[in-house]
# Entry
Amino acid sequence: MNQNPYLPELATLVEVIEETPNIKTFRVVLDDEEKMRNFTFRPGQVGQLSVFGVGESTFVINSSPTRMDYLQFSVMRVGEVTTRLHQLQAGDKVGVRAPLGNGFPVEDMRGKNIVFIGGGIGMAPLRTLFLYMLDNRADFGDITLLYGARTPVDMTYKAELPEWLGRSDVRTVLTVDAEYPGWEHRVGLIPNVLLDLAPSPENAVAVTCGPPIMIKFTLQALKKLGFEDDQIITTLEKRMKCGVGLCGRCNIGTKYVCVDGPVFTYAQLKALPSEL
Amino acid sequence: MDRFLAASQLTALADDLAQTGPVLAPIAEGGSVVFRWYRPGMRIELSRMASTSPKAATFPQTEPLLAVRREGEAKTPTVEATLPPRSRTVVLGCRPCGARGKEIFGPVFLGGVHDPYFARRREDALFMAVVCTRPETTCFCTSVGGGPADTVGVDVLLIPVEGGFVARSVTAAGEKVLAHALFAEAGARSAEADAVIAKANAAMPPQDDFRTAPEKLLARFDDKDFWERQSAKCISCGACTYMCPTCYCFNITDDDLGLESRRIRTWDNCMSYLFTLEGSGHNPRPTKAHRLKNRVSHKFSYYPTIHSGTIACCGCGRCIKHCPVGVDIRAIVRAAQEYGG
Ligand SMILES: Cc1cc2nc3c(=O)[nH]c(=O)nc-3n(C[C@H](O)[C@H](O)[C@H](O)COP(=O)(O)OP(=O)(O)OC[C@H]3O[C@@H](n4cnc5c(N)ncnc54)[C@H](O)[C@@H]3O)c2cc1C
Ligand code: FES
# Structure
């Protein structure tokens, strides 16, 4: 590769969706039509979004490679770049460096029953794989989606939830931490609801992403249900900058999350030094 | 090829080289010696190793990556890569360890991903290194594959002899420089130079054997007590990272200048809490023990594991000498190697 790895593609925001009080979804199209047409990626790969003059940050591409009208990123407002991103509107220009990282091992997941367990903004990386599987429905077995947020207000992709809930070929379960006026779905922490749903580990793969504390208890719940380490897949958040394995901040021992990840099986993570 | 440079001609050489491209040289400033971009009138000091490293020649502390311009009201900015201008850059008078230091970048910056900024600077840099005749107590280049007259990454070796230096070319680019009129016949001084090198090699203290360091450090990974003891003195100041010729971690930030902005990269410091702080508030390296562990292990375990045994350290000892509290990276690696017998 002899291109400049730091040079972003110019892109236009075609749509901005307000998901929650602190999460917005951005739909982005590369300005170079040919590059947009030829753009390919694997579910789970990430991109760096630039707000010129402010900086660049890493977000998972949460649209599916099967739906290439735009690339979608959902951004939680936590600091400088994300705050400025939230101020942008449709028509504004951003920079995109993508795709980066490894993505989900979709080939290995063919024919398996899939259990998605997402918490909060952690639903973003699951969405891309979930949509990919819906668009290749025959390639996969039973699909369960367990998605939780603190309150209904904190749920992303609200506009899509009715469709997901209504589909007969997936089982979608939503949960929030505590009772909330008008909430008709489950109430309870994700790991507890998971134990209650008790998906079978037989020929199954669990894919989970969420805040560290949720991951910790979800892993315990999955173990209790009989899932082995190599049947659990997660995607990590580490602080990143370059995204191409040079700047040196995202390593766990000899592995660089930006290049060797962000997707790992729990078995792979266990083989690494414990520095999560 | 051997030539001779009289000590009295060193300044003239620097003046002349500086006419055709940047020259980075160790300059006496107050009580210290630091690498500066040479300007006529500066005093080059070769008798002591500079406090700073010559890393800036191939990896400046700050460098622009991109320039972004917005013309008038136009929404669409233009984004351009700001590659360094092509011109020969001479590092005049570093030590062999300093020249070797930049070689650690190669497998990372010119491996799977090609960093065009480093590539260009590396290609355009010419290293004229002075043989070390008197090792300091903090020197350990021979323990990491180098030596006082090591030629790895060196284009011209300057060997101190009576009245000046024997300039010995190592590369073709180095040989070209020696065609300069200020260099004279080396003659019998070549033999004197050989003797100086032999003496310099003999003067080095016994070397450490760090071959078992990669697995021994990894074996201590979860040993919190060990790392807390090793980092007890550390104050997380990060001086070690800024002095180091091989540290290559960097940050990327935007510099907004109104109608124009620049994306720049700067040396970063893995000893800082902020280096790995995540958006969720979680930090995988929350204490100085975690961070020192990563710095030492990167150099002596992770990097050698990935890059066929090469230790990511040139043994210059700057991190030991300039550490305000006397943390000694050699001692930490030895402690891990000797752990449990
Ligand atoms: C593989 C990966 C995928 C991600 N996907 C998403 C996603 O889909 N949606 C989303 O909202 N966020 C995602 N993140 C997190 C996102 O990158 C950070 O929240 C963002 O970079 C913060 O930028 P900022 O300039 O607003 O924050 P800053 O002003 O720089 O800092 C605010 C806080 O964010 C932390 N932070 C800064 N930069 C990063 C960084 N690059 N990575 C992690 N933490 C950082 C700081 O330590 C600080 O705690 C992902 C991170 C990674 C590594
Ligand atoms: S983000 Fe730079 S090395 Fe991974």
Residues A 240-243, 245-250, 256, 258 surround FE2/S2 (inorganic) cluster (ligand 2) (CB under 6 Å). The longest strand of chain B covers residues 62-69. The mean pLDDT of chain B is 95.
